[in-house]
Write a structure and sequence with these properties.
Blueprint: H1 11-14, H2 19-23, H3 25-35, E1 42-43, H4 45-55, H5 63-68, E2 78-85, E3 88-89, H6 91-94, H7 98-106, E4 112-118, E5 123-127, E6 136-146, E7 150-154, E8 158-160, E9 167-170, E10 175-179, E11 185-195
Antiparallel strand pairs: 1-2, 2-3, 2-4, 4-11, 5-10, 6-9, 6-11, 7-8, 7-10
Length: 198
């Protein structure tokens, strides 16, 4: 049984094929560099700021909230660009990233996967993300694609987000991320849902 953690998880404890992401990072990065201007990001800055401030938790993003969120703009601090939502492909983005989507299918990363952008000097304060349902826990995987002196922190451990190096944790854990750099930080995010017994 996996419970919310105060330290990072080992990739092999999340999924036995996660090492493929690091091995094929150069493929993902080349594809990203070629098509990044075509990827559709939506702005969740205000949603996150409000729920973190009011409730101490991250904003629960679903199909409807994604489609009603505004496109990123000069004022955006944090945005999302999905490739898969609960097993369904999001074609407006996935069509531009066929190699990356093949890799995600190989490692069963279709519950949710997509890109996040954290803009220069921006941060997401201490928060936890709601669990997907009763007796279900979410294991979150981040693969930084473009790093910018950003740090991901859990209660008892912090790590620099290094391009092509996996970071794994339970999203129900208290965590925050800070971009100390002067460029965007882009990460590929994967969620794995696990049923647990209490």
């Amino acid at each position: 049984m996996v419970q919310p953690q105060s330290t990072f998880l080992r990739p092999e404890d999340v999924h036995p094929k996660l090492h493929v992401l690091e091995e094929l990072y150069p493929v993902i990065r080349r594809e990203w560099d070629t098509v990044q201007h075509k990827i559709e990001f939506r702005d969740f800055t205000s949603y996150q700021a409000q729920t973190i401030s009011n409730e101490g938790q991250g904003y629960e993003i679903n199909h409807m909230s994604y489609f009603t969120a505004p496109p990123v703009s000069a004022k955006t601090k944090w945005g999302l660009a999905p490739l898969y939502f609960q097993g369904d492909i999001y074609n407006p983005n996935a069509i531009h990233m066929p190699k990356t989507c093949r890799i995600l299918r190989e490692i069963d990363a279709m519950t949710y996967s997509g890109f996040t952008v954290l803009y220069p000097t921006a941060s997401l304060g201490w928060h936890y993300d709601p669990e997907p349902g009763p007796n279900v826990i979410n294991l979150r995987v981040q693969l930084p694609i473009v790093s910018s002196d950003s740090v991901l922190e859990l209660k008892d451990e912090s790590r620099v987000q290094t391009e092509g190096k996996l970071l794994c944790f339970t999203s129900g854990s208290m965590h925050r991320v800070v971009n100390h750099g002067n460029a965007e930080r882009i990460s590929l995010i994967l969620d794995y849902w696990r049923r647990v017994s209490h």
